[in-house]
Design a protein that fits this description.
heterodimer; A: 2 domains; 7-stranded antiparallel beta sheet; 12 strands; about 25% strand; B: alpha+beta; 60s Ribosomal Protein L30, Chain: A; 5-stranded mixed beta sheet; 10 strands
């Protein structure tokens, strides 16, 4: 989880940052911005999962920033916690109607900040229903396209694939936002490509199409997963990418907490779903 | 074994069979620390906020003051293997003294100083039961790190740290 702190006081930003570190939250990067305009620029360039923002700031205040965020599909449902001196109920009601996940009124104790962040992010733990959707949809796509049945691997150990490994990734934004990635041995990708194209597994063309095939399998899986989680509001899928993966990257990918391991035709396959929280889910 | 911590005292134990206990915290503040990895617990019962009020007395009885008492207890726990990231902290007591107009706000000051010492040391409070105007008793089971607060309102287990 990456957090963006927006406050014109670097004292407040430092204090919140220290609290986040001490809370033991699994935080990636803590970005900082001194006003709404800077914050919007960070959100454009960086992956942000949660925003903690002040209201009264120079250049662009928190309310303007929130309005701009809500108009941009990329940030429309990004969760925002307001950390402000504001106490006027009318202003609070007005902003709350625009999807503020929580309020912290200054002055605050570190423990209050921690509790509010945990309260907002607590429901983002991997949802068993999401894991179940992933198993089902990935299984369906593999069955239809690759004539194989992924078996979820429950044991903790990470099998080492023979030969090269390909990793494909896709980002999606909209009703739900996040990334889905899959890592699979090159040999399996070639088999899938051959099956899809009606070629012999050792055909030279299948070998060159392996990575693209994996990316397409991922693309379809992600599309189904998004509508499975949020059937009504559309989600925009960005074009998938695929690249070779080094053995140590494979190891790290497989050991990441959100990675699910499958066995497909004796090949280990790792699938990882990172759902970006949205204000509606929070 | 029950280890009773008196006023202006603290105790540190790594005996899993020990229960640290301090009675009748009014405006005094009780600081409970536990490191489950090192298997060590500590309990402080401090009476006054800052040692600058009487450095001589603080030198003799560091646990009388929150600042010196907490620092001393923390140091002893670190010396015996506790580490900051593993420490659970609970704060109990610091009630509003029923003196005339609550002039000195001893309870609130004790609370503020214990928060300051913990924040400085990079320790967040897992749970607390402070303020009001009641007397409280707090216990820490060193073996399993469970802490309980007892008052006229009954007994409640203090929440473990909310970390992931």
């Amino acid at each position: 989880m990456n957090i963006l702190l927006v406050d014109d006081s670097d004292i407040i930003r430092s204090m919140i940052k220290r609290t986040i570190v001490l809370s033991g939250l699994s935080v990636g990067t803590v970005h900082e911005a001194a006003n709404g305009k800077e914050a919007l620029a960070v959100m454009r360039d960086e992956w942000v999962d949660l925003v903690l923002a002040d209201l009264n700031m120079p250049v662009m205040d928190g309310a303007e920033m929130l309005s701009a965020m809500r108009e941009d599909p990329d940030t429309a449902r990004m969760p925002v916690i307001i950390v402000s001196t504001e106490g006027a109920t009318q202003r609070i009601d007005d902003l709350s109607s625009r999807g503020v996940s929580a309020w912290v009124r200054k002055p605050f104790t570190p423990e209050e900040i921690r509790d509010v962040i945990l309260g907002v992010t607590g429901s983002w733990e991997t949802d068993p229903a999401t894991d179940e959707s992933l198993d089902r949809i990935f299984g369906h796509v593999m069955e239809t396209f690759a004539y194989s049945f992924p078996e979820p691997l429950r044991s903790g150990e990470t099998p080492t694939p023979d030969g090269d490994v390909v990793c494909a990734e896709i980002d999606f934004v909209g009703a739900i936002s996040g990334a889905l990635s899959v890592a699979a041995p090159g040999a399996l990708c070639r088999d899938i490509a051959a099956g899809l194209l009606g070629l012999e597994p050792d055909d030279a063309e299948a070998a060159t199409r392996g990575a693209d095939t994996l990316a397409e399998v991922l693309n379809i899986t992600a599309g189904h997963l998004c509508t499975d989680i949020e059937p009504h509001t559309p989600t925009h899928l960005r074009p998938p990418t695929a690249a070779r993966m080094a053995p140590d990257e494979w190891q790290a990918f497989c050991e990441a907490p959100r990675t699910r391991m499958y066995l497909i035709d004796e090949h280990p396959v790792a699938v990882r779903l990172d759902l970006r929280p949205t204000s509606a889910r929070a | 074994m029950d280890v009773v911590v008196g006023i202006s005292e603290y105790a540190v134990s790594s005996d899993p069979d020990d229960t640290l206990i301090t009675y009748s915290l009014g405006s005094c503040v009780g600081l409970v620390l536990h490191d489950p990895v090192a298997g060590i617990g500590g309990l402080l019962h401090a009476m006054m906020p800052v040692s600058t009020a009487d450095p001589g007395k603080a030198a003799m009885t560091p646990a009388m003051y929150v600042d010196t008492g907490a620092a001393r207890m923390l140091q002893e726990m670190f010396d015996r293997g506790a580490t900051r990231p593993n420490l659970s902290a609970w704060v109990v007591g610091a009630a509003n003294q029923l003196d005339s107009d609550n002039l000195f706000r001893i309870g609130a000051r004790n609370h503020a100083i214990v928060r300051k010492v913990l924040w400085k040391n990079g320790i967040l409070i897992a749970d607390e039961e402070t303020g009001g105007s009641i007397s409280r008793t707090v216990t820490l089971e060193v073996g399993d790190g469970r802490a309980f607060v007892k008052s006229s309102g009954g007994v409640r287990e203090l929440r473990p740290p909310r970390t992931r």
